[in-house]
Design a protein that fits this description.
Elements: H1 2-29, H2 38-47, H3 49-78, H4 83-120, H5 122-139, H6 146-162, H7 167-182, H8 191-212, H9 217-220, H10 222-240
């Protein structure tokens, strides 16, 4: 259990770093948000295929793998205080991780064929890459962070009930979850960026907590212990009277 908590802490820190590095690559190196024309996107792909490939690995494939580790670590930490909630949260976390891994794999699988096609027919290559992007984006929460928002909502709720994580961290997680969930509505999809920024802080904070501490099993067993002591003291008092 202690080893799983450590792995979960490292996973959370990796996920925060992946977010930050990915944002820098997309915004600064690729300048992807400013490119809307499919032909320009295909040309950029042909120009920097390895950057795109590596970014997909970093932000989707590896991110999804580490998300599975973190989900299992949080389940182990919080299951005694809120077992049903954590079962649902872990299931959603693994589904989210699977969709992210699939998104990255689909996008990377399409790079080589599109680059080869671009040499013969740039227009057809642009259309092909546009279709691949739509599928990858749908798998990778391109239309809202419903899966990530629900996962954070349930984890934060379970942590509040069990006391397994700091209250401030849980409140931050609830805030991020609301932002992620509402980002699925038309006109609010830009909130996915805010969701990611809040998640970076949440992941860093969570990673530090998991690396420094473990669930306090003694604290979780404290109420029954107090009841036993109280009962014992009552019995002693009655005996003395």
């Amino acid at each position: 259990m202690k080893t799983l908590q450590k792995f979960g802490g490292f996973a959370a820190l990796y996920m925060a770093a992946a977010y930050l590095i990915g944002m820098v690559i997309f915004l600064v190196i690729l300048d992807y948000p400013s490119i809307t024309d499919p032909a320009q996107k295909a040309a950029l792909l042909v120009k920097m295929p390895m950057v795109t490939f590596s970014t997909n690995l970093l932000m989707y494939v590896f991110f999804g793998v580490f998300l599975i580790v973190l989900s299992l670590a949080l389940y182990d930490r919080l299951k005694s205080g809120a077992p049903a909630i954590m079962q649902v949260a872990t299931a959603i976390g693994i589904i989210w991780a699977g969709s992210l891994i699939a998104s990255g794999m689909v996008a990377n699988a399409g790079i080589a064929p599109v680059v080869a096609l671009y040499a013969r027919d740039p227009a057809q290559a642009a259309l092909t890459w546009q279709g691949i992007e739509i599928v990858a984006s749908g798998l990778g929460n391109g239309n809202g962070e419903i899966k990530g928002g629900l996962w954070m909502l349930l984890v934060s709720w379970a942590a509040l009930r069990s006391g397994g994580l700091p209250k401030g961290l849980n409140i931050l997680g609830l805030l991020a979850s609301v932002v992620g969930i509402v980002s699925i509505f038309p006109g609010l999809t830009d909130l996915t960026g805010l969701f990611g920024l809040i998640q970076v802080v949440w992941f860093v904070w969570l990673g530090i907590i998991l690396l420094r501490s473990n669930p306090d099993r003694a604290a979780q067993n404290q109420p029954p212990f107090r009841l036993q002591v109280s009962t014992a003291n009552q019995g002693i008092g009655e005996f003395e009277r």
